[in-house]
Amino acid sequence: MFDFRDIEVIRAIVRQGGFRAASDATGIAQSAISRRVRHLEDRMKIKIFERDGRGVRLTAAGRRLCDEAEVLVAQRDHILDELTQGVMAGVVRLGVAETMTHTILPRMLTSLRARHPQLRFEISVDTSGQMGQELANDGLDVVIMLRDQAPCGINLTVLPPVGLGWYVAPAHFTLPSPAGVDDLAALPIVSFPKGTIPHRRVIELLSPGRKQAVVVHGSASLATVLHLVGQGFGIGTIPHDIVAAWPHAGLEEIAVLPDAQLPDLEFAVCYMPERNAEIGREVARAAVETAIY
């Protein structure tokens, strides 16, 4: 309909008080200015200027156009100023594994907000497998997910490992100390969602050589796992930091034999190298700083 050059020509006519003066100020031939205005009026089907013996003046439609155009020009100048001065702004689609929402996410976002106050975050919490697909399909810009489930061809920054333990509400279950694989397998277990690496590790740890399948319930919500274990539904595999942040859950870590210990969870900040590299590096920097804080 119109472009910024049209706006600049109209502004020059208004500020200089006429077509000839606008021509002198801009270096554009008066005939070219008149032609541009005429074509713009034809395209928009409005009258922008009224011409009289003393010069030109804006019509009501012309004043409205100029007022709205000033807003557009200001926005354009603001964007250019941000880009040329290296200001990071806009929306970041951030995917986060739930473990991270209870640990580093709040401090990480606070750090990023202090450095880049014009960034806005749209946060999605999902399983690492699902977020990996979204990242590859450009549905997310940056993801904090389990390292082992990161898609091929991505840039990743590994975060410090997250310790994982067995937990119980002692009022509901009594186990030997230290407990062995057989002791754990005899009880209902609440763990990460089916299909995730932590869930598979629990199955692999407890299942070999058993005639009866181990009962492992899966939940994508760590808060749900905490409540279920706290209410005696079963024992749970939960990150140490999560339990420490929820002391009111009343859970105790189960001391286990070496063959029943769970491996740490390894998370990483991931982004595709051909897009979002700048914000990906900033998120990774803040995540690492927060994780070792």
From TrEMBL:
InterPro entries: LTTR (IPR050176), LysR_HTH_N (IPR000847), LysR_subst-bd (IPR005119), WH-like_DNA-bd_sf (IPR036388), WH_DNA-bd_sf (IPR036390)
Domain HTH lysR-type: 2-59
GO MF term list: DNA binding; DNA-binding transcription factor activity
Keyword Transcription tagged: yes
Keyword Transcription regulation on entry: yes
Keywords recorded for this protein, A-Z: DNA-binding, Transcription, Transcription regulation
Organism superkingdom: Bacteria
Family per record: Belongs to the LysR transcriptional regulatory family.
Protein name: DNA-binding transcriptional regulator, LysR family
Species this chain originates from: Paracoccus saliphilus
